[in-house]
Amino acid sequence: MAAQGEALTPSSYISHHLTNLSAGEGFWTVHIDSLFFSVLIGAGFLWLFYKVAKTATSGVPGKLQCAVEIIVEFVNDNVKETFHGRNPLIAPLALTIFVWVFLMNVMDLVPIDFLPEFAKLFGVEYLKVVPTADVNITLSMALGVFALMIYYGIKVKGIGGFVKELALHPFNHPIMIPFNLLLEVVSLLAKPISLGMRLFGNMFAGEVVFILIAALLPWWAQWLGSVPWAIFHILVITIQAFVFMMLTIVYLSQAHEDSDH
């Protein structure tokens, strides 16, 4: 909330909340808060699903087991419908991406000043708690997907087949190789960039709205803006996790498709 902002103007309040806890300079700057929360959330997700798997029963399941089973079945159905290759990694990868991204997105629903004010008790001046509102996190995840695309593209088609697909598509003629390479390489590189930037853009925009509400409205009126936006944002949070998962499945499915050339 903006109660802390008595010594801050709205502009400085917004700037303060958009500043990461960082170490290093220039290209080698590390956003410690984004890394901390992404790793913490990922570890919590793995622990929770491991616990549910170890305590799962074939009888009447508990609410947590039901929720996990629904998520697993939902992801598995989407993988079966979208991925046309044979790879046991895809379903666990899709499940990890969907749940991890969703949980990181959910951090956007935590009140703006709650964790930063708590961190100040330990001398931490800046703290951003939404990892997916940091372009470094979203692009690093997208680059991981890109690396898998290249790896499986070469593994399934061979180096020759992979290069041939880039050189002879969409125009299967030697004279068109330079144009094909330009077109296909740009298209290939655009996939991870758009994948990471889409998630970042949506989550950063949502975070900015919450910050603006806290900066511009008195504390007793903030719920008039924050609650409706939070309810709407739940939909955005879920859709963005789903889109990131589905595009990952689609890109890896394309990487497993053998070349027609």
Structure in words:
- This protein is mainly alpha-helical and 261 residues long.
- Helices cover 70% and strands 2% of the residues.
- It is built from 8 helices and 2 strands.
- It has a two-stranded antiparallel ribbon.
- Strand 1 and strand 2 form a beta hairpin.
- Helix 4 runs antiparallel to helix 8 and helix 6 runs antiparallel to helix 7.
- The longest helix has 40 residues.
- The chain is globular and about 65 Å long.
- It starts with 9 loop residues before the first helix and ends in a 5-residue tail after the last helix.
Write the topology of this structure.
Layout: H1 10-17, E1 22-23, E2 30-31, H2 32-55, H3 63-82, H4 90-106, H5 114-120, H6 135-167, H7 177-216, H8 222-256
Antiparallel strand pairs: 1-2
Q: Quick recap of the structure?
A:
The protein is built from eight helices and two strands, in the order H-E-E-H-H-H-H-H-H-H.
Number of distinct helices: 8
What value does the average pLDDT take? 91
Q: Major β-sheet, in short?
A: 2 strands, antiparallel
Q: Helicity level, as a percent range?
A: over 70%
Strand share of the residues?
under 5%
Number of beta-strand segments: 2
Question: What is the alpha-carbon Rg in Å?
Answer: 22 Å
Structural class by SSE content: mainly alpha
Spatial order of the strands forming the largest sheet:
1-2
What is the overall silhouette?
globular
Quaternary organisation of the protein chains? single chain
Alpha carbon gap, first and last residue: 59 Å
Order of helices and strands: HEEHHHHHHH
| Poorly predicted regions | 1-6
